[in-house]
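Duplicate of earlier report; Phosphoenolpyruvate-protein phosphotransferase input re-posted below.
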Amino acid sequence: MENTQSETNSLQMRYTGVGVSPGRVIAPLIPMAPPVEAPPEGDPLVEDAEAAVERLNQAAKAVKAELKERAERARSEAAAEVLKATSLMAGDKALIKNAAKLVRNQSVSPERALWDAATGYADQMRAMGGYMAERAADIEDVRARIVAELRGMPAPGVPQRTEPFVLAAEDLAPADTAVLDPEAVVALVTSSGGPQSHTAILARNLGLPAVVAATGVTDVESGTRVFVDGSAGSIVTYPGEEQELAVTAWHKASEQLATFNGHGALADGTEVALLANVGTADDAQAAAAAGAQGVGLLRTEFCFLGRDTEPTVEEQTEAYVEIFKAFGSAKIVVRTLDAGADKPLPFLTDTTEPNPALGVRGYRTDWTTPGVLERQLQAIAAAADQTEANVWVMAPMISTAGEAGHFAGLVHAAGLEVSGVMVETPAAAITAEQILDRVDFVSLGTNDLTQYTMAADRMLGSLAELNSPWQPAVLRMIERTAAGAQAASSASGEHKNVGVCGEAAADPALAVVLVGLGVDTLSMSPRSLAAVAAVLSRTDPGQARTVAQTALHATGAQEARESVRAQLPVLEQLGL
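Output:
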């Protein structure tokens, strides 16, 4: 036995990345299939030009339809939103028109024409930087799918296997991640991507262990057994007894985290409401079934994505009513439309902006296209009137107290009582007291707050360390927001609630830090509720404040995380 174990250890290779979704598994690693190869340069046209253009049109329509169908089968609203947006790319009239011109004018095959036209679009997006650069990968995914359709080949995607396996890739396209079967794919590992990439977000929604930015992992031979630790961010080949025991410990600990009793609180009984992030009626029903105490973030983009025109007030009202009903009289925090950046809409946003992440997005779209926000507020108010829900409404991408005051005026004019804003910019964090003089609550969007504070594109794997909510600078922004809320509460005599609805709230260790910094409520994926509740229930307020100070005084994200975890033995006890 000792010799066997020694031989195993000598064969082991360890790859380290960023753990983005907890869990420990052992299974064969299977890489994604090779990408679709580019057609040869100048690949000549061998058929009638108009017949080739018609084939091109039909292929694009087929890919668009397939992506839409995948959106309907997607296991999460986040996946559905991404797939709907990607399907629009497949049916983009300008893309197909440019490809058709190349067929007619340069007598190249439709495959080569489409490839060149899409590559041109992708290059333009990369030149823009930020969110648009991230969308370039989606254009290239659409490019590959249309070329595969033209060739009569299967679309690129996840390997089809009956046995459980770990899926490895450089990064995963939305169409790949959206319809993963968790019964077959038991973990995700990528060599690039960041903590807020599509892979990371969808892995958390699916409850799959995942590690991103693990350089070299795609070089592992297909079929090699690997150990994946989604908390530690590590992958080990040829796992031995140590790794087997770690998986066993994880399964035992998971049994303690099977359910959430619907009451978030610290060890002394101090309440910390645990809410859910949702985007559709199905999401809301699943969150309610999981015990969520309400909704801390209702993403309303699902009403708008995949459309060429604005949905009517009546259409929006009907959609909101179905979600509100799932929670009876519980609190529902509705975020108004967060269009722009990575969620462009043809009737609302300008896709030619040089830096969309810093452009007209969220609340700012009301400056350039007034009326859309007011009609959305009318729909939210109408849905609130038809249900018992306790509806709060907040605007994304607020930077000044003046903007907060204007939004509060729109909310009250629509007949809604509780107004708030997202704190996603350093400007909003450091002026929280002034903002909360004008609105009733704030909710921290830690994904954007991190990238704006650290000046680091949240999609880039090379900036994963900077782009972590554990960064002390980000935690100080959160501390400043909570202090501003306390001051505003004292001045007004009314409690000004501070919530977190970004991905940070789903990390049990970071949840303790957030509460220690003065955060009142946490909102997350329903799958994270039980783990966060279990850790909070074993932590007293003094301990939370102590670990929060530890994190604030760390020199970086890794030190902050490691030092906090060292002070919370409950995490190891629960396998977290």
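The first helix runs from residue 2 to 11.

Merging into the original ticket.
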